[in-house]
Write a sequence for this structure.
């Protein structure tokens, strides 16, 4: 029996996760630049729309929402909140085994969500290189750990990323770092998949990007339906990965090989 839930986009689909895709990378309404295809009639550019799109494309550089100083300032109140949770569960926060638990849990939660402290521009760090390479680049089986924003329990799995360069390539380790930034936040898998793809598109302006995530959600394993072997598969295809079935099939074949 196949317990996987597939959310892969098919050619021509326009479905976005959440509220219709109005929020990407956690903070802004983004519009992804794609290669220009055939059109039945010329369209007149809208200056206001172009301005908004330009602003959205640049805002990924300034998306940091939490600093190290914020962590230090919020740690006492966060630890106090965990102490209240322990009391609410019927435990005694003053017993020996739980004396330091609120502080440990608070610092652990700050680590689990450390992606809020980083931006893509921090990670790229001059790692974009001019290179006359136009064949597919794939990094697969990137370990991913995240937190379900609905139940605050772990999501973990693997991320596969592929892109078709447009005269520029990205240092391979930076793809894994981009995954780390967006996974180390409160997430839903559908949004996480799109955030990774959009970030790579904005940084490189490649011909196309494909991202596939296979993950286990502890909110389905430890509680609720309690299906131990279930996995959720999501994909985001942009540019030629979405428009050209052959390119998309090549990517999907290679990540499964």
């Amino acid at each position: 029996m196949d317990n996987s839930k597939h959310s892969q986009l098919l050619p021509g689909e326009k479905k976005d996760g959440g509220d219709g895709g109005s929020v990407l990378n956690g903070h802004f309404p983004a519009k992804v630049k794609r290669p220009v295809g055939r059109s039945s009639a010329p369209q007149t550019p809208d200056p206001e729309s172009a301005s908004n799109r330009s602003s959205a494309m640049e805002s990924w550089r300034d998306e940091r929402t939490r600093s190290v100083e914020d962590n230090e300032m919020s740690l006492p109140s966060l630890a106090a909140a965990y102490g209240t949770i322990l009391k609410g569960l019927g435990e005694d926060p003053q017993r020996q085994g739980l004396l330091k638990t609120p502080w440990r849990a608070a610092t652990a939660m700050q680590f689990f969500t450390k992606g809020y402290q980083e931006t893509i521009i921090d990670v790229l760090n001059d790692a974009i290189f001019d290179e006359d390479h136009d064949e597919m680049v794939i990094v697969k089986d990137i370990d991913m750990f995240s937190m379900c924003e609905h139940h605050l329990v772990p999501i973990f799995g693997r991320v596969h990323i592929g892109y078709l360069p447009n005269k520029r390539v990205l240092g391979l380790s930076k793809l894994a770092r981009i995954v780390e930034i967006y996974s180390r936040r409160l997430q839903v898998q559908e949004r996480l998949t799109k955030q990774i793809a959009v970030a790579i598109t904005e940084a490189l302006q490649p011909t196309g990007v494909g991202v596939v995530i296979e993950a286990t959600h502890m909110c389905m394993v430890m509680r609720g339906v309690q299906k131990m072997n279930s996995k959720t598969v999501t994909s985001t295809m942009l540019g030629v990965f979405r428009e050209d079935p052959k390119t998309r099939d090549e990517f999907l074949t290679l990540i499964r090989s």
